[in-house]
User: Which sequence fits this backbone?
């Protein structure tokens, strides 16, 4: 296969972890006879510094004309405590999601047996957890009209959803559930929000098309609780943008393997693949960041092209490294640890 | 003191747990020479059944003319999966909050040493946790304009906040922090939402009036993570209505003492006090529900009248019961357990 992959390293540790994912992907390409054409482009604070824009048009053109996007991380602390900053890296992210039509954010939470003890949860609570969130990513309160009135004294944000938006996300949810344990949980706040009632009635109407899928409806506050209590009771969860933002992050820390969690954002055409961890500014340039989440994001990318064997080869290399202790300091428990690029080299060699 | 207390037992186990809180409060009144005049009123599904309305005007008049409201729980499963039901118990709750002006929901999460092992979190993560959420309760997306357009195909919910609404909530937060560890965390999503930017800038402007309070600003998704990772790093957290709904429920399960957590909803005049657990329909009438959260809500009520000794006496009785194993089956670990009313009797006798 010939693959054009846009490479958006971004900020902080982004460039370091992306470099390792490139090494590993190139090793996969060599082994399985693919050709990858990497197309680097600017994004995030790095792009603001270079061209004054977090998601420049040129970057968009590169992404839009590629088969997939491999993404590092964005965000820089100098923007965080300045709510009035005119240009923020996050705007680039939102613009990118919208312009590339990436409406479904796929966020798995699973456990690695060797890392179970890193979880803040007791072993018996977390064991066997293997769930996936599908978060709607281009609608809701993120993209509704927002602003001020009364001379700045009143602020508003509008949350809007159409039935079609819910349907396309829910469809992916039902289909994903069919390939897994056939359980789907629709997370909403239908006891308060009209948008949630639209979500619930739309999913209810789709149930008949997937008679094998067992569908449940839970309020977002209840899910926030059950994720901590019984995370292994879930299979596939679908939800709107803001609830998904909160719950997927909550879900990510329960496993003890947060630094290893990949994600995908899918749309009609191309997909974007990125680790869930952020730009981790304090670690920038120190060669200590864990590249495995980004490497596993590359695995999701291959799998999304239908290249299951390739994805599996990456997952196996990561498992092997974990078992052999070829890990960065976050996973070394004070024992021998390796640098970001050493872990990347080892993984590439073991493909 | 002469106290008029509106008594809203509500649905499910509400009446049973409220009965115990009344016993205990009456024992306090006797011991400390107060006079409590209980004024029962209908709410929730019970009120819908009786008069077709979850928060009838008569109930409002009783509440508004009382010094405080003691509340059980509302909610009935027959309304849950019917998003189109015209009258829902939750509407009564929202109407009550709004009409009584209960803008600050106070939700402590603390630990009882004897219950630490009930937490889904590891002991070292949860030990020493003692945090309080102040959730804004009468604004935001709960009360903004909501509805449908395009013949029902599009739904919308509007989130609105004014600076004054943020200020009165934040003021309570700063004041509460001053009586505790002097740390205040403002939880928002200022990287995306305009209402959050208003929250952040308003709180920032108030910092100078409380120079001793150490203020931090965290995104709601980050807090959803840190609550599971390091709950004991928080002191007082302030946040808007919907974030508060999700995060306070998440916080409630981390302690292992969820069934014991009380809450208060405060406004300009009267306060409402209620356990955080719901109506627990499956347990209705079985005399197995744990009354301690409701009893501790009564303690918060006395403390809010400035009656600290009275509150303390209740807390001590609860601690004594826990240490002696005078508990309902949820806390009995398969050992001897007592009924709801027996626990209530024991607490009242031990005041
Ligand atoms: C940075 C921010 C805008 C973003 C979001 O809220 O979507 C992030 O939290 C995420 O989840 O990818
Ligand atoms: C029942 C529901 C409307 C309510 C809310 O969302 O406020 C409940 O979850 C709560 O937190 O008191």
Assistant:
């Amino acid at each position: 296969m010939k693959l054009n992959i846009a490479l958006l390293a971004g900020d902080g540790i982004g460039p370091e972890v992306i470099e390792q994912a490139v090494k590993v992907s190139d090793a996969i390409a060599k082994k399985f006879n693919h050709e990858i054409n990497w197309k680097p482009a600017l994004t995030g604070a790095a792009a603001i510094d270079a061209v004054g824009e977090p998601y420049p048009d040129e970057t968009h053109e590169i992404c839009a004309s590629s088969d997939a996007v491999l993404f590092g991380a964005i965000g820089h602390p100098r923007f965080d405590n300045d709510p009035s900053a005119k240009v923020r890296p996050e705007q680039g992210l939102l613009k990118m999601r919208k312009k590339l039509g990436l409406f479904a954010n796929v966020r798995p939470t699973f456990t690695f047996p060797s890392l179970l003890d890193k979880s803040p949860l007791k072993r018996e609570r977390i064991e066997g957890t293997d769930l996936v969130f599908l978060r709607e990513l281009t609608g809701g309160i993120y993209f509704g009209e927002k602003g001020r009135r009364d001379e700045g004294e009143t602020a508003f944000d509008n949350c809007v959803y159409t039935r079609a938006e819910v349907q396309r996300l829910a469809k992916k949810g039902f289909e994903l559930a069919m390939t897994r344990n056939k359980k789907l949980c629709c997370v909403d706040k239908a006891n308060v929000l009209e948008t949630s009632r639209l979500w619930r009635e739309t999913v209810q109407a789709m149930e008949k098309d997937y008679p094998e899928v067992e569908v449940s409806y839970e309020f977002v506050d209840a899910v926030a609780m059950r994720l901590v209590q019984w995370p292994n009771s879930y299979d596939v969860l679908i939800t709107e943008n803001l609830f998904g933002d909160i719950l997927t992050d909550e879900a990510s820390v329960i496993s003890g393997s947060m630094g290893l969690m990949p994600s995908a954002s899918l749309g009609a055409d191309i997909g974007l693949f990125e680790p869930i961890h952020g730009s981790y500014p304090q670690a920038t340039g120190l060669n200590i960041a864990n590249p495995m989440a980004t490497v596993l994001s590359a695995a999701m990318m291959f799998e999304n092209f239908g290249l299951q064997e390739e994805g599996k080869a990456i997952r196996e290399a990561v498992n092997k490294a974990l078992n052999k202790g070829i890990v960065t300091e976050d996973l070394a428990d004070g024992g021998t640890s390796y640098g970001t690029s050493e872990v990347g080299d080892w993984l590439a060699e073991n493909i």
About this structure: The mean pLDDT of chain A is 95.
